[in-house]
Design a protein that fits this description.
Blueprint: E1 5-9, H1 12-32, E2 37-41, H2 48-61, E3 68-72, E4 74-77, H3 87-94, E5 106-107, H4 118-131, E6 137-140, E7 162-165, H5 168-173, H6 175-178, E8 187-190, H7 193-197, E9 202-206, H8 212-220, E10 238-243, H9 244-247
Parallel strand pairs: 1-10, 2-3, 2-6, 3-5, 6-9, 9-10
Antiparallel strand pairs: 4-8, 7-8
Helix pairs in contact: 1-2
Bound molecules: fructose -6-phosphate.
Length: 251
């Protein structure tokens, strides 16, 4: 009996379309009531099909994002917004440039800050989420360390947006994007576990057999800061969206 609601799809496309439809319904309901929709967004490979489907819904079904405010989970530090590996660039290339979201409503942690200003920036990021009314819906992927956002093992349940040091496994997994592991930044700015747990609804995507064991541990294992995704067991409205490969624990 899993401790987190889990839906298993034939493939990533089917699961992504299900969540895209949920986002469409939420935005359209809020638009009718003249309310903003606050989305928490992730980068990486896991949400790519979701973003493609949201673009399709915008282009073919007139889904409008003019009342959407977005907050991204994380960004490497340091990182220039136009660098190929930047999460800022990722979001504009894969979603924002293709929909009608207002630039001033897009929020992504700033990888160009002077380190002395990071704490103030992170506190403002939290306040900005609160001022927007909190995250209506948060999209997550999961790292092999069990990280959500860049909340690596050791992240506290009540952690907020902050500067973190990346886990060695995470830097190894990012090596391809940077040419080598040595080129992967050592730090990042990430929303905290506590920030994520305050979202009204959370969808976590995991595709492929490489994610199967960490997914199983997150859903069924003891809640521990050594696997930050296990904290989602405490969240009332989280759904894991898996393909078949991610749902089968290797023998
Ligand atoms: C990305 C993020 C990370 C990724 C995770 C999985 O904004 O916060 O937690 O979601 O590392 O990455 P992919 O989807 O590339 O397997």
């Amino acid at each position: 009996m899993e401790k987190i609601k889990t839906l298993v799809y034939n493939d990533a496309l089917e699961g992504s379309k299900y969540v895209a439809k949920k986002i469409q319904e939420l935005i359209e309901k809020n638009n009718k009531q003249n309310k903003k929709t606050v989305l928490g967004l992730a980068t990486g490979s896991s949400p790519l099909k979701l973003y493609a489907e949201l673009i399709r819904l915008h282009k073919e079904e007139n889904l409008s994002f003019t009342n959407v405010i977005s907050f991204n989970l994380d960004e490497y530090f340091p990182m220039k917004p136009d660098a190929v590996q930047s999460y800022h660039k990722f979001m504009f290339d894969n979603l924002f440039n293709h929909i009608d979201i207002k630039k001033e409503n897009v929020n992504i942690p700033d990888g160009t800050l002077n380190e002395a200003n990071v704490v103030a920036f992170c506190n403002q990021y939290e306040s900005k989420i609160d001022a927007a009314g909190g995250l209506d819906l948060q999209i997550l992927g999961i790292g092999r360390t069990g990280h959500i956002g860049f909340n690596e093992p050791g992240s506290a349940e009540n952690s907020i947006t902050r500067m973190v040091v990346l886990n060695d496994v995470t830097r190894t997994d990012a090596a391809n994007d940077f040419g080598s592991k040595e080129n992967v930044p050592v730090k990042a700015i990430t929303m905290g576990v506590g920030t994520i747990l305050k979202a009204k609804q959370v969808y976590l995507f995991a595709w492929g057999e490489k994610k199967a064991s960490i997914v199983a541990e997150s859903i069924n294992g003891a809640i521990t800061d050594q696997v930050p995704a296990t904290f989602l067991q405490k969240h009332k409205n989280t759904t894991f969206i898996l393909d078949k490969a991610a749902s089968v624990v290797p023998a």
